[in-house]
Amino acid sequence: MEKRDTCDQPTVFFDKQGNKRFNVRKITELPRFAVNLTFALRAQIISEIIYFDYEFIAGMFACLSFQEIIEVAQLALKVDPFASVHIKKDLGELMIDLGN
Predict the structure, then answer these.
(1) Residues 6+ positions from 75 with CB-CB distance below 8 Å
(2) Looking at the domain assignment, is residue 50 inside a domain?
(3) Domain ranges, residue 87
(4) Is the pTM here over 0.85, yes or no?
């Protein structure tokens, strides 16, 4: 298999007028891609690039609906065998509070 060298995609960039723009493709596709990786890779990407990166989180809130953000979190918890029971319980209570 040939290894392809690719550069990192920015989460945030600025257009010619200086307006802050989010990389919508990265924000919408990376979380769904990450859950299909091995646990070690998935944990690293989810912790370093997605949930503990301020720009990525800000982009999620700017580009996704609240329901989509919850779905991404549920997807990450569903495939993680070490996910905390308390986190799943809290997420379930949040969904009940939202009327879902």
Answers:
(1) 31, 32, 35
(2) yes
(3) 12-97
(4) no
